[in-house]
Design a protein that fits this description.
about 190 residues, mainly alpha, 3-stranded mixed β-sheet, 9 helices, about 55% helix
Length: about 190
């Protein structure tokens, strides 16, 4: 009986130690954990060659462009074009109104923006140059096809991969409407 009680006590202590280990190690002095390097000697993720995205950095892309395009370039989610009060609705409508003169900025966003921003820019480009948009969609699917993007619709919120959205947008009848087919009258 005493041996059984000691066993349960020891297994409980072991479980507690496993639960608190991350907390304790976070509170320990770095010299005790074996790293012991000064912070300046530890390579950052960009120095070690690791790729960081604009989502990880939380910084808007760096290019001097229209405020609406800058907002779309760092968009965190795609929204159904029917959402009038969405986070991106105003920026999207203003960016669409810029049209073909904003082509250089749209191409820059396609190359450097957030995943959602790249998809928005490609969809806007498709309004005045469908051939270039198809090429951009193919490049997005090849380069970041497995990246997930939040999608907010009128009655849904879900995740789609970039490849899934590209497949939809390049189909004959897309189900997801990223940009409105026609501009709404004010």
């Amino acid at each position: 009986m005493n041996l059984e009680r000691n066993f349960y006590f020891a297994s409980g202590l072991m479980a507690l130690s496993l639960c608190f280990m991350p907390f304790v190690s976070a509170q320990m002095d770095p010299s005790l954990t074996g790293t012991g390097l000064p912070p300046s000697a530890v390579p950052s993720s960009t120095e070690s060659g690791a790729k960081t995205s604009s989502l990880e950095n939380e910084k808007p892309p760096s290019r001097n462009m229209n405020a609406a395009l800058t907002a779309l370039a760092s968009a965190k989610q795609l929204e159904d074009a029917s959402l009038k009060n969405g986070k991106n609705a105003t920026s999207l409508n203003l960016a669409i109104k810029l049209g073909a003169p904003a082509r250089d900025d749209l191409e820059w966003i396609i190359a450097n923006g957030s995943p959602a921003g790249r998809l928005y820019a490609t969809a806007i480009l498709g309004r005045f140059d469908p051939t270039a948009a198809k090429d951009a969609y193919r490049a997005l699917a090849a380069g970041m096809g497995d990246v997930n993007v939040d999608f907010v619709g009128a009655h849904e919120r879900c995740h789609y991969s970039v490849a899934d959205i590209v497949t939809d947008q390049t189909s004959a009848k897309p189900l997801i409407e990223i940009v409105p087919k026609q501009m709404a009258k004010p």
